[in-house]
Amino acid sequence: MAVTLDEKLEPIFHDVLRRNPGETEFHQAVHEVLETLGPVLVKYPEFAEKKVIQRICEPERQIIFRVPWMDDKGEIQINRAFRVEFNSALGPYKGGMRFHPSVYLGIIKFLGFEQIFKNALTDLPIGGGKGGSDFDPKGRSDAEIMRFCQSLMTELYRHLGEYTDVPAGDIGVGQRELGYLFGQYKRITNRYESGVLTGKGLNWGGSRARKEATGYGTVFFAHEMLKARGDSLEGKTVVVSGSGNVAIYAIEKCQQLGAKVIACSDSGGMIVDEQGLDLDLIKRIKEVERRRISAYVEARPKARYVEDGNIWTVPCDVALPCATQNELNGKDAKTLVENGCIAVAEGANMPTTPEGIKIFQDAKIAYGPGKAANAGGVATSALEMQQNASRDFWTFDYTAKRLEEIMVNIHRNCYETADEFGAPGNYVVGANITGFLKVAQAMDALGLI
Ligand code: NDP
Fold it and tell me: Residue 1's pLDDT is what?
């Protein structure tokens, strides 16, 4: 880890290491938060006495279960699934489900832990949780995806509820998967409980602007960081990693705000199009045809595809990591800074390694960590729950406006808190402390929980 911890926090981290062996991503996420909490314990010693940090680091409940299902050849497959209900001091557990072969308990716990603070930053009544499975959707037929989702929900449903735990999508889980999950929940419970899942389709309880929300929100955050420095996104050259839900709508909002996005990627490689990416083409390839990003160059011969290419070597003003954890390391951060990058906003969760973060901070570029910069997705999920509870369906413009206001507010709170705790311009400090205080104060008010 890049930074040493305050003497009060070091033993807490040691305990986390001891109790959660081998969960390296979870250790990384906890360390990154603890690094910033030293000054909080000076100002609020009661949180140390009451062991609030130790309690926050221990999930309220962890569920691990078997998901048996049959593939198209009639062969039985077995996956493992998780739901970590981390903290419900502010509201029902809220956080997405991830389907990816790399999923294990340590990934779900890092995501659930980050989610607690992210959700607190939105100022909406949602606790933190996360789930997923080591199921690999790549190459699976529609029918296989459906059978897997149905089997998963056959166990998971008993742990969910609009006032208990409300999942959504994440890597490998989009509207199609959420549809199969919601359908099975409805069938088992005999309840049309819209508020039990978010990211739903528009004709079955979803919210307008939810699909766009994480990507749009990340770009709003980047824009606010630049505005705080007397600059803007207009005319900037942008590079976005990934080409999934978050990446696509980050590209869209960048283009709407007058920036030129010249590169994106998937796990196979990257495309670089100096003319500016053709977003309609990307949407067709990824959302409709579900093909690899390499297909882009078939229709745009002037663009290039680089297999296994490192997207952070493409010179840009603004970098938006929107794929996965630890995709941007110290060397990449150095390359970005040397190539003149002035801002990084994370659409993905924990995409930058601790070494990378330190390089951005030392170079004094604007760096927006995921738990603040990508909070627009879960915030709009909470708006979806609000619409479900009141049986309402807001317009796109109204919902997108609410999202923008929430992101501006998150940026302002992080900025001001960083100032207040002696770290001006440090959004990691700002986000961690703002989120922590909100959760800690609620936990304190609710007695020993
Ligand atoms: P998608 O599954 O829609 O897209 C993920 C993208 O990232 C794909 O292009 C995928 O490429 C790429 N990717 C995934 N894993 C890897 C890997 N190991 N190496 C390289 N590329 C990889 O997911 P989302 O867009 O929903 O999520 C992207 C990130 O944003 C995640 O970190 C997620 O936790 C975070 N996030 C998502 C939110 C949401 O609302 N969806 C909310 C907040 C954060 P390939 O197809 O080749 O695997």
Answer: 59
- Assigned fold of 59-192: Rossmann fold (3.40.50)
Pick the atom of ligand 1 nearest to 324's CA. Answer: 32
- Tens of pLDDT along 126-150? 999 999 999 999 999 999 999 999 9
Q: Is 129 in the pocket of ligand 1 (CB under 6 A)?
A: no
0.90 exceeded by pTM = yes
What's the CATH number of domain 212-368, 3.40.50.720, 3.40.50.11540, 2.40.128.190, 4.10.800.10?
3.40.50.720
In the chain, ranges of CATH 3.40.50.720 domains: 212-368
Q: Is the pLDDT of residue 278 over 90?
A: yes
Task: Kindly tell me if the per-residue pLDDT of 3 is higher than 90.
Answer: no
Beta carbons within 8 Å of 306's beta carbon, 6+ residues apart: 269, 270, 271, 272
Say which of 94, 109, 118, 130 is annotated catalytic: 130
- Using the mean position of ligand 1's atoms as its centre, give its distance from the Cα of residue 170 in Å: 7
C-beta of 267 in contact with ligand 1 (< 6 A): yes
Q: Is 171 in the pocket of ligand 1 (CB under 6 A)?
A: yes
Q: Report DSSP letters for 309-374, one per residue.
A: --GGGS--SEEE--S-TT-B-HHHHHHHHHTT--EEE-SSSS-B-HHHHHHHHHTT-EEE-HHHHT
Query: What distances in angstroms separate CA 170 from CA 103, 211, 293, 386, one per listed residue?
Result: 12, 11, 19, 21
183-233: per-residue pLDDT in tens?
A: 999 999 999 999 999 999 999 999 999 999 999 999 999 999 999 999 999
Q: Answer yes or no: is the C-beta of 206 below 6 A from any ligand 1 atom.
A: no
Secondary structure element (H or E) that encloses residue 261, with its range: strand 260-266
Ligand 1 atom having least distance to the Cα of 100: 15
Say how far apart CA 301 and CA 289 lie, in whole Å: 19
- Find the 50 Cα to ligand 1 centroid distance in Å: 37
CB of 122 shorter than 6 A to ligand 1? no
**Percent of the chain beyond pLDDT 90?**
99
- Mean pLDDT over each residue of the chain, to the nearest integer: 98
* Active site (annotated) includes residue 130: yes
- Whether the CB of 170 sits within 6 Å of ligand 1: yes
Give nearest CA residue, ligand 1 atom 4.
Answer: 244
Residue 369 has pLDDT above 80, yes or no: yes
Confidence of residue 4 (pLDDT cuts 50, 70, 90): confident
User: What spatial distance separates the first Cα and last Cα of the chain, rounded to whole Å?
Assistant: 30
**Nearest protein Cα to ligand 1, atom 17:** 267
Position 2 pLDDT exceeds 80: no
